[in-house]
Every structure is written in structure tokens, then in C-alpha cells.
Structure to design on (246 residues):
């Protein structure tokens, strides 16, 4: 099955889509640069912005590469490469793939248990579940932007709106669910996300959280804002290193 998932037709299909998206990015980059020159922006500043954007995209992309490597063992390389190159997010792809695998009867997300029908279901769910951001943006972004720029826009010193609070609550709930499963798996000795009685996931989560806290402290308290671009990838690497050492 893994040889089929790494077959040339899949590479051509996924690679063709990625190449198209990359071409669109280049076209927009060139047109944006020309538009900046047309309105009188300093060419040196434009070039500096371009260089810094490239530089700060390298290390965060390491986290995406880690996701491709992690998923390639069970889903092949082309599909994770496509999902994480175009619109996917690392935490989303791994979570949905694991949940879909469990629903189709796979004990683990692995190539040894993968079947054509299971892969089709997993790939379909990974695609369909993330489409709604684009679809809702298509219909509602114009009105939302008008609201932001209109009279209803609140001052920057006001309290966060409902959207910010809802997003924060969602992530707290998500993190709590994972941490709870790790603790429950360790205490009971039988969990879906852990080995029996294994402390490794709890320690890895703690190490990753401490690493992220350090980045937040440096970026917010020490005004080293540029570190924000590296925080997720570095925290992931720290967590993975802790898992390897344990």
C-alpha cells in the first residue's frame, strides 16, 4: 500500500497542484513589488522586506517538514506534502488523520494497516473539513472588513472582542483535552493517545510548553518580536528531542 501512496501518478497530481500554487505566489509577489514601486515606495525597503520574509520563512517551515515526515510513514509522501504545502496546518492534519483512521477501524495510523478505502476516507476528511475557512471567507469577508473599518470598529485600547475570546477558549479546550488524555492514559494504563502507563507524552508536552513560554517571554517582555516566527518550530523540535532522550 505504501508503494501505491508513493507512486509516480500521485507525485504528478500533488506536485502539479503545488507547482500551480507556487506559480500564483510568485505572480502575486512580482505584481506586489511592481505596485509598490508604482506608488512610490522605496525599492531598498521593498527588497529588505522580501529578504526578511524569505529568511523568517525557513525555520517555521521546518515544523511543516516534520509534519510531512511524520505523516509520510502512513500516508505516503505526496499527500502530506500537498496538504501541508497549500492550505493545511500541522496540528489539524495529524489530528484529523488520526481521528479518521480510528473511525475506519485502524488501530493506529500506520502503513501496515492502511487500505485503499481507509486512505480515501482519511484523505477526503482531511480535505473537506478544512474547506470552510475559504468558503466562509468568500461569502462573509467583505462584510466583515466593512465592519472592521466602519463606525462599529472599537478602539485599540478596548477589551478583546468575542472572536478573540472564542478562539482562546477553543485552544484552551483543545490543549486541555490532549493533556487530560495523556494524564488519564498514564493513571489508568490504557489510553488512545499513550502507551500503557507512559509518562513520555506528559513530559514532552511540558517541555514544549516551557519552550514556548520562553519564546513568548522574549518576544513580549524583551521586545524580541522576530522570535515569534521561530517559536512553534523550535518548541516542536524541543519536544521531539525530549521524546528521543526519554
Amino acid at each position: 500500500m505504501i508503494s501505491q501512496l508513493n507512486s509516480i501518478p500521485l507525485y504528478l497530481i500533488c506536485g502539479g497542484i503545488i507547482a500551480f500554487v507556487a506559480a500564483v505566489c510568485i505572480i502575486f509577489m512580482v505584481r506586489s513589488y511592481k505596485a509598490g514601486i508604482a506608488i512610490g515606495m522605496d525599492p531598498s525597503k521593498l527588497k529588505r522586506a522580501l529578504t526578511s520574509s524569505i529568511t523568517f520563512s525557513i525555520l517555521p517551515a521546518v515544523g511543516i517538514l516534520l509534519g510531512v515526515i511524520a505523516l509520510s510513514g502512513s500516508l505516503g509522501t505526496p499527500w502530506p506534502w500537498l496538504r501541508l504545502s497549500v492550505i493545511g496546518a500541522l496540528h489539524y492534519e495529524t489530528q484529523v488523520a488520526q481521528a479518521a483512521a480510528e473511525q475506519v477501524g485502524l488501530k493506529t495510523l500506520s502503513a501496515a494497516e492502511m487500505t485503499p478505502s481507509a486512505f480515501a476516507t482519511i484523505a477526503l476528511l482531511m480535505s473537506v473539513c478544512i474547506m470552510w475557512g475559504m468558503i466562509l471567507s468568500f461569502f462573509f469577508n467583505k462584510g466583515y472588513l466593512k465592519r472592521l473599518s466602519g463606525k462599529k470598529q472599537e478602539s485599540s485600547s478596548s477589551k478583546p472582542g468575542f472572536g478573540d475570546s472564542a478562539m482562546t477558549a477553543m485552544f484552551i479546550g483543545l490543549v486541555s483535552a490532549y493533556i487530560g488524555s495523556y494524564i488519564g492514559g498514564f493513571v489508568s494504563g490504557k489510553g488512545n493517545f499513550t502507551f500503557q502507563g507512559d509518562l513520555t507524552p506528559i513530559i514532552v508536552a511540558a517541555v514544549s510548553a516551557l519552550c514556548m513560554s520562553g519564546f513568548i517571554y522574549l518576544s513580549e517582555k524583551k521586545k524580541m518580536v522576530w522570535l515569534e516566527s521561530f517559536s512553534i518550530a523550535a518548541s516542536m523540535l524541543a519536544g521531539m528531542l525530549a521524546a528521543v532522550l526519554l
